[in-house]
Amino acid sequence: MHYQLNEEAEILLQETWQRVQSKLAITQKRIGSSLPYISKNHKYIDMGSNKLNWWTNGFWPGILWQMYAATKKSAYLKTARCIEEKLEITFKNPSTLDHDVGFIWLNAAVTDYHLTGNVVAKKRALTAADILAKRYNPIGKYLLAWNGIEKKGQVIVDCFMNLPLLYWASAQTGDSKFEKIATAHAYTATKALLRADGSVNHIAVFDPQTGQFEQNLGGQGYSSDSSWARGQAWAIYGLVLAYKNVKDVQFLNQAKLVANYFIANVSTTDDVSLIDFRAPSTPVYYDTTATAIAICGLLELVRYLPLRQQALYKNAAFKMFKALTQRYCDFSLKDDELLTCGSAKYHRESDREVPIIYGDAFYLEALLRFLNLDLKIYSQEDETLEELAIKH
């Protein structure tokens, strides 16, 4: 989809793309097949040595696949495949994996198969889909978040983004159980997590025996009644994806409501999100990753709206992208990170206002969406490999 931006915007996008290409050509070699999470002293810390099952481990291969598709440089493919082989080891102990196998394997194996037709990647992705489907509670009609006895019955807003793995699995296998699980979870999560004003809760707790809703928890935001910005961003993007797959307009309308809420809030902080929109006025903590995710969600939303409704979301998305580019990007070839000032959790200093790999991943996706070069990892089109090759 072409977003028809003005000349100044097009120049910014092209200049940024050149800088990103120069940087990632270097960092691809330096980071290699390690599994980055947060950056310390401008170098990403590898999670592969002690947390191979960590939920962010798919984002670096996702970046590599995006770059391979856009540039055709085989080094990106080779490195992504090395990571995929490494991640397959986690299948030997599936109990250590959780709902975020979607994030990991959509970025890794699903994208590999979609782009190259690699049947080994397809097998890996279907294994991941089976693991995710087994987390389904048929009484409460939800996918269980996280592991541990104390967390039984928890549903989180992030999981909207994992559902495309199940829809993909049904499309590949012809087995409708995957899509039925995904759709049931989408309805349950929407009812339990969304508020009337467009804000969202992070966590909903259900009784796993009866399926009854019990309470909402604060999660990674400031408190249980606050408004965690990344949760808002997950909801925008995830609800649009639910609409794409279910075709129920309630999901599209809810996505617009959450998007309107997000846009209104970031307009008061120079188009970059705080960690929590309802946190106390001081101290001020930002989360650029929420902004990057929201941009991608807004650009996905625009694809399903009539022309007269598109401008609000398209223009807001570009204002956010421009703010990130001009104030929070590190284009230095000496540094690993691309997007700075990301925050995983309000009340945890160790990964608050630091570079985080998923910030890079969604910033790159946003850039490539504006340039019509992205792979749409979470909303893949039914294109042939030949059509993808022509497009990219």
Automatic annotation (TrEMBL):
Which residues does UniProt call coiled coil? none
Q: Which InterPro entries does this chain map to?
A: 6-hairpin_glycosidase_sf (IPR008928), 6hp_glycosidase-like_sf (IPR012341), Glyco_hydro_88 (IPR010905), UG_Glycosaminoglycan_Hydrolase (IPR052369)
Write one Gene Ontology MF term: hydrolase activity
* Record's keyword terms, sorted: Hydrolase
Under Gene3D superfamilies, the record lists: 1.50.10.10
**One protein family per Pfam:** Glyco_hydro_88
Record family assignment: Belongs to the glycosyl hydrolase 88 family.
Official protein name in the record: Glycoside hydrolase family 88 protein
Species source reads Agrilactobacillus yilanensis
